[in-house]
Amino acid sequence: MKKAFVTGGAGFIGSQLAEELLKEDYEVHIIDNLSSGYRKYIPDGALFHHLDICSASAKDIIIKEKPDVLFHLAAQADVSRSIKNPQHDAEVNIIGTINMLEACREAGGCKLIFSSTSAVYGNLDKNRISIEDPALPISYYGLSKLAAENYIRIYHELYQLPTTILRYGNVYGPRQTPKGEGGVVAVFLNKLKNRQPLTLHGNGKQTRDFIYVRDVVSANLAAVRNGNGQTLHVSTGKPTSIQEVAGILAELHPEEAELIYTNSRPGDIEHSCLNNEQTIRVLGWQPEMNMKAGLKAAYRSMQNESF
Ligand code: NAD
In the chain, what are the domains? Predict the structure, then answer.
């Protein structure tokens, strides 16, 4: 039986990845300190280690269990929190990642698949970002993720540790909370649920590359089999405006939804779309969910959620 560790397996993306791994007959171990995740999301059948990724115990359990693959998703993933507390952000995202790298190395070289982010690019003024484009983050979160990526690169080079770095676009779907990264869909869904207006900054024509959570999960699974040493985008390669998202959600909502336009926020990125051609080639993966169907699934699940 194949063995996988999922750090952050009680969170939005990690819990859904753990579910799929169980379906593929993996023995699944989850490391999570429940700082932003929920115990209720840990799937039945997964072995839960209530630990911090920075701890010696987390490292020891990986060395003892010697997994085939470690999906490293646990992170401080809140941009504004990273600005308020850069030290904590760096501890979790950089020191925590080094701890996981050391564990993989000492465990005999299990593959590490890392969840990274388009936030590493900062405010790059480009319609479609390629992986070769310069990474100049504008938040400590983007910076700590980029630093973690570089530690992974050097572990790969020095010790031939099998690795894949996946930079996600704006992930959305069931279980996303209105906190954390890229959560405009979850923020809008929460507003609709609480009968509040949807606030759009500026003209609402800013675009993002929205990727459905199940497509992120399938990219992680594909990265077990294919690729080694690359950094890849997990995205649709298609821009969708915030206004379009608000429009689709308002249509799904049975009551009248009010849209309010306010001043644009300083530092907000205008357009962000990630070229995914290399990912399709290397991983043999394709994003499958279209935006309308994905938003419908997210809308339905938010109606039954309480955070
Ligand atoms: P999430 O907050 O739902 O999940 C993160 C999980 O990590 C939580 O369960 C939390 O309790 C756990 N965790 C946090 N710090 C920990 C620590 N020190 N030790 C152990 N566990 C810890 O976030 P998510 O949206 O599922 O994000 C998962 C990963 O994907 C993160 O690495 C994030 O940076 C990355 N990512 C997310 C998005 C997005 O749009 N959601 C976009 C790009 C990248």
Answer: 3-170+211-236+274-287 (3.40.50.720), 184-207+239-272+293-304 (3.90.25.10)
